[in-house]
Write a structure and sequence with these properties.
The structure holds 2 protein chains of 2 kinds. By secondary structure, chain A is an all-beta fold. Chain A is built from no helices and 10 strands. In chain A, strand 4 and strand 5 form a beta hairpin. Chain A is globular and about 40 Å long. The N and C termini of chain A lie far apart (37 Å). Chain B is 0% helix and 55% strand. In chain B, the strands form 2 sheets. In chain B, strands 2, 4, 5, 9, 10 and 11 form a 6-stranded mixed sheet that branches. In chain B, strand 9 and strand 10 form a beta hairpin. The chains are: A mainly beta, B mainly beta. The interface between A and B is medium-sized, with 20 and 25 residues.
């Protein structure tokens, strides 16, 4: 079946602009995660959605970052007033139930470059 | 919160040698420890995991060991092959937390 998809695959923007990154999880997966991957920094947790529960936003680095998940499926990560340090690969993952021991299935990522 | 340290950051071996990657964690309540492999330009994928009620788990050429007392766990790859070249991430979580990942180890296997 279809895996996790993300769009766009690459995004180049100018400092100060807003960007929106999209994630389509595997159909039926109730949990969705956003991570940021910077060179040498591993996978940095950003935000976690589980069903209809309030999202866990504990990983968002600043109030410029926000995310929503509509209808329990597609999610959008928004970065406002982008800064050069926001340049990274943004990865989305989904899992069947949100149990931490579920396998997380990752998307291909969106490479964001802020000039 | 949980903190996961991973070593080494890079590891170069000759084909056929063994490779060992080590991780330590800080939260004694953590009870689930997966390993993900990310090949160049591709997405991370789960390769093996271990839960705190076992000390070792094997799957063909890969194995993971867990020492709960010392709060560390390791990935062992035997008879390495060039296709094992990738970045490997360890992670830890307990029942009500999301995964905390280490910073990754780049494994290079030379023919």
């Amino acid at each position: 079946g279809a895996g996790v998809s993300q769009s766009p695959s690459n995004k180049v923007t100018e400092k100060g602009k807003d960007v929106e990154l999209r994630c389509d999880p595997i159909s039926g997966h109730t949990a969705l995660y956003w991570y940021r991957q910077s060179l040498g920094q591993g996978l940095e947790f950003l935000i976690y959605f589980q069903g209809n529960s309030a999202p866990d936003k504990s990983g968002l680095p600043s109030d410029r970052f926000s995310a929503e998940r509509t209808g329990g499926s597609v999610s959008t990560l928004t970065i406002q007033r982008t800064q050069q340090e926001d340049s990274a690969v943004y990865l989305c993952a989904s899992s069947p139930t949100g149990d931490p021991t579920d396998t997380q299935y990752f998307g291909p990522g969106t490479r964001l470059t802020v000039l | 919160g949980e903190n996961v340290e991973q070593h080494p950051s890079t590891l170069s071996v000759q084909e056929g040698d063994s490779a060992v990657i080590k991780c330590t964690y800080s939260d004694s309540a953590s009870n689930y420890f997966p390993w993900y492999k990310q090949e160049l330009g591709k997405r991370p994928q789960l390769i093996i995991d271990i839960r705190s009620n076992v000390g070792e788990k094997k799957d063909q050429r890969i194995a993971v060991t867990l020492n709960k007392t010392a709060k560390h766990f390791s990935l062992h790859i035997t008879e390495t092959q060039p296709e094992d070249s990738a970045v490997y991430f360890c992670a830890a979580s307990h029942g009500y937390s999301t995964l905390t990942f280490g910073k990754g180890t780049m494994l290079l296997v030379s023919p």
